[in-house]
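Protocol step 6 of 9: fold each sequence in the batch and record its structure tokens directly after the sequence line. For illustration, a two-sequence batch is reproduced in full.

Sequence one:
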Amino acid sequence: MLRSEWTARTCEELLRDYVPAETKGRKLVFEGVDGRDVYNITAPFRNEGEWYMAGRVEERNSEDSEVVFFTAENGIWKAKADLPRFRLQDPFITRLGGEWIMGGVQLHFSKEPERKIDGWRTVLYRGSVLHDLTHVKSGPWNMKDIRLTPLIDGTVGFFSRPFGVEGRVAVIGFNIIQSFEELSETIFLHGHLFRDQFVKEEWGGANEIHMLSNGMLGVLGHISRRDADGMLHYHAMTFGLNPWTLEKTELKIVAVRGDFPDGPAKRPDLVDVIFSGGLIREADGRAVLYVGASDTEAYSLELGDPFLEYERLPAVCAEDPHGLKGK
């Protein structure tokens, strides 16, 4: 069902409707990173006839990360030594206009009195091949979860995640532009905000966007909260969006940390955390979800395709009743 506005439900309320996966997820194995952790990965993607993946790589006791590209060989993801590495966190990648758009989160560290994170922003790289990715755009400071997608009429949709809107932790925003060139730090701050997806004390963001066969957008993301004991809880979620009417389905949780084998956590408050990286849709109504877990490991999980129900909705119309195009 599509609606312009929903009543926000808490993580705990959404979890009551969640049906756990039939089988546990599978841990992914990486080589070529000198024993460092690999997590918050992208879904595998095809490039030059091979399966590639990008992942966040860092020491267990550090957040000073780099994004590394891997290729699959006999079930093991091996670092590509001939591809550039980027001092970023939480990579994402998509295709726009025949080019790769790769992004991640860039940290800013204070130097005095001690080195610590005091800001971050999303940065975007562009190139016809992965060897030649060049920095072209930056988002506003302290905004993560910027994601881009082509739309069926040739325009570009993008998702954002502004903080502190009307006392909320963070909300998902959406806008339409004519082309990638229109993106600017300012335009990320404009667009429609979905205030009805999270209660004020909780937050979430878009992680990967799928353009569905009926013109709908299938959004893979996360919904998050911090409990009274300071523990973080991150779950994988999806929703469907008509990009022109801005009607959307209700959020649904599609995976939780308990769907994967137990493993180490970077900090005690990250035990119940998964971060949606991407999803591969299969032809048989199934899908494979790729996640980072507890800021230390990466997993895949087979599940029913969460986007099928959105694809069965009536085809969308490339109209612009909200005046989003070129705004």
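Sequence two, same batch, same settings:
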Amino acid sequence: MWQHLGDLLAGAPPRSTALIDGRTAVTYAELDDLVTARAAELSGRVLAVTGANTVDFVVTLLAAARARVVAAPLDPSLPEAERTRRIALLQNPHGLCDDDALIMLTSGTTGTPKLVPWTHQSLAASVKTVVDSYGLTARDATVAVMPLFHGHGLVAALLATLTSRGTLLLPESGRFSAHTFADDMAAVSATWYTAVPTIHRIVARRADTLPPLRFIRSCSAPLSPDLVTDLERRFGTQVLAAYGMTETTHQAATVRPGAGAEVRQNTVGTPVGLDVRIINGEICFRGPTVMRGYLGPDPADPFLDGWLRTGDLGIQDLDGNLVVTGRIKNLINRGGEKISPEHVEQVLAGCPGVLQAAVVGVPDDLYGEHVAAAVVLDGDTDPGQITEYCRTRLAPFEIPQQIVPVAALPQTAKGDVDRTALAALMVGQSPTRVP
């Protein structure tokens, strides 16, 4: 098992297929040559890597590690202004260490992304938990369903597959497509795949058949028992929920193959390589894959007596399985994308005709939650105009899908926005839905 990301390809079977980009196969030897050539071109301390699920993205990411450059994967769909802001945050970040391999940006409740350092050691430990938990080998193959600029796709699909010397197919479009997913899985004789519940629901609705699968993995958002049952019935395999966050270098717990139906349907399994403690109802972790802290001149402190506070409420049953029961933070979880309502509110506040705005997450059958905004307007501004304003200022997944004009925002006794009342208001109405 490698201990430095730059050594991931060392000793790999040269003629075995590592990646398939569309219909072009790239062997491990060819991938190693591409990484070596790209590494010779790189210099500096931090490199922002923006791209879709392509061979070029993979090569650049691995080459940065080989060149001893810290890579920071970025979402290519971000508006130019937001991408520029994130790149600025990455310039000589305070607290960077020699062992840092990657910097992952995660949404914060203030709207300013937090910089999470992933060391070579923590990354290797996390990838090993994925490989070991599911028994991945060179006989396994999968499709890159999740974006590789997110921890989910990066650790569980890309790095776990390359570490186990399996094969990863990168969709020709560079991203998940419901139209090609079944064909992509068949093309590589996939034995498993990992995705968020939103994509699982799409697959359950659209894919008639899939190759024989050892398991289906789900992570990054709550998985409902009915979806577990539906997927297992349709595809004849077990659905294994996993739980993690950027601050734990992705996977922190998972359901193991062979677990009973009750565990598969109602828990996220047992911790992997980490200690867990429930403190005042909140799930907390400690261990080798937990980050040392955020980067920056004045970073927030998410630790309590050495334990990482996840912001999630939960319990642990007698067998050690974790059950996530709720969330402390305001962050909206739309299909695995974490969204700061405060950030969306800041953008809405700058829209002409909007006097006040408040944003909450509203239950959604497909995405788990979607972004809903209540706005106090001045004049004849309509939701369509607000949406157009947001398109150049927010990532696509951050744009409110519901925009509801209200006379006034509900408030608490302290004068703060009453988000509980607002969420109830949004669910209870039939507002204009913005595509």
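Proceed to step 7 once all outputs are recorded. Observation for sequence two: The longest strand covers residues 354-364.
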